[in-house]
Amino acid sequence: MVRAAFVVLALLLVGLPTMTGCEKTNHENIEKWMRTAKGPAKLRKALKATDIDAELSAHAAANLIRTGASNEVLEAIKDMSAGRRDQVIAKLAPRLWDLARVDGEMTVPSPDKVEAKDALFELRERANPEGQKQIDGYLTDWYTGGYYEARANLGKYIGCKVIRTLGPPAGEKLMAAANAILAKPVAERVKVGDELLLGMAASGSGEAVKYVLDIARMNRGDKTQGARALSALYKAYLEPGGLFDVVDPAGLIPNIEKLAEIAKDSTASPQMANDAVSLIRAIGMPHCLPALVGMINQLHRDEQFRYVGANNALKCGGGKAIVEVVEALPDNGAYQHEDLEGAVSGEIAKIGPRDQTLQIVRQLLTKKSKLARWIAMDALLKLKSKEDAAAVAALANDNTKLNGYWGDQSDLDAKDRKPEPTVGKRASEIAAALQALP
Questions:
Q1: Which residues contact 128 (CB under 8 A, 6 or more apart)?
Q2: 3-state SS, residue 248
Q3: What is the pLDDT at residue 220?
């Protein structure tokens, strides 16, 4: 009996450390583990456990993120089953939002709040559509709930990248931030910042694009405002420089007329006009062609503007645009040969497929317009179409002058001015060059 009692007591003593050393996974202990040496290991175990409530795993995940272990948390969530992952994310997102939330419109977020914001953005990739919607709301509030310009460049993921991912709803929220700036009295006015303009542009919202274009035309005493607004759109829809993916042009389509107005405005800076034209081209067919062709005959302070319209129309419409562009160019205008050949015939020669382009160019060679024939001849030379040498040579007797061929010579003495060639002279030169091709 004594021996049996001793055995029972020994077993109890052996089991005692296990019983007293085992801590239940609850919210109180998860907080306590933040302050103990073995706590991180226990938090990792709680995060990965499948036999506890998802709320507890989410709490453990949030605490690990507070210690800087975001990558580890995201990998663990990635490895979960779909159902468990959705449950944990649904509980984790509000916790991260509590960590990320910033009180005060002008308060600069602290590093821990920025880190929580970044974790929310990373978590979004793992979330289901419902979870993404929840996270999108938090991120939108984080960026638009305070002074955007001060928050945009904080953390691993800058504002324009996040807003690009969140899409149009975030862009429309940023419009309210811009409204607050524009509504300030003259004495308190600050400029609409570059980050705010880029954020609205990057959102892909048609309404935000319209708003940025309206800002570009506002006279607020900021001489850089128009150029900066167009530059933001250009960056978002054409060259984001690796900051984010190029924005889908859908947001530009309803604003094509506003872009055309800026492009045609002779009071706008050349850079604004060029950016507007490039944005119209980015919209693509069939929308871009009519708008760009409509600029060819537009009166503009910059004589080169017609080439901008013609060149971009060709880039926009390809082979379908060739005849329309050439016919839009005034036949009685003066054209410097390097400008015309670079912007028009040279661009035509780049259009493929080559066989189809040759067929269209050969049609131009038979047009009554001297300009059409000139452009066609030069394009055939650039296309190295030796088989068309005879057709070009057949124009050798055409005495129609190519006005402006050498450009403006008004500042030269009469004896130094070059005579303008005729269609026939240029035809003979091009035919000889074609025949000499191997």
A1: 82, 86, 89
A2: coil
A3: 80
Question: Which pLDDT score, from 0 to 100, does residue 305 have?
Answer: 80
Instruction: Indicate the DSSP class of residue 342.
Output: I
Tokens found for residue 243: 């900051």
Place of tokens 């709320």: 55
Tell me the mean pLDDT per 10 residues along the chain, length 438: 48 40 84 93 95 96 94 95 97 97 88 96 96 97 92 95 97 92 74 94 97 92 92 98 96 97 89 93 95 85 82 95 96 93 96 96 95 97 97 96 92 91 96 96
- pLDDT at residue 22, rounded to an integer: 62
- Rounded CA separation 245/241 (Å): 9
The answer, as to whether pTM is greater than 0.70, is: yes
Q: Which of 167, 245, 158 is nearest to 205 (CA)?
A: 167
In this prediction, residue 3 carries a pLDDT of: 54
Question: What are residue 60's phi and psi, to 5 degrees?
Answer: -65, -40
Residue 404 CB neighbour total at 10 angstroms: 16
CA dist., res. 384 & res. 241, Å (int): 36
Ramachandran area for residue 289 (φ above 0: left; ψ -120 to 50: alpha; else beta): alpha
Domain boundaries, the chain: 39-157, 159-281
**CB-based contacts of 395: which residues, under 8 Å, 6+ apart?**
365, 373, 377, 423, 424, 427
Taking Cα atoms as reference points, which of 253, 323, 306 lies closest to residue 282?
Answer: 253
Distant-in-sequence, close-in-space partners of 341: CB < 8 Å, separation ≥ 6? 378, 382
Residue 279 is encoded by which pair of tokens? 């944005």
Coil/strand/helix, residue 343? helix
**Of the candidates 150, 193, 148, 194, the residue with the CA atom closest to the CA atom of residue 174:** 148
Main-chain phi, psi angles of 192, to 5 degrees: -70, 115
280 vs 287: CA distance, rounded Å: 8
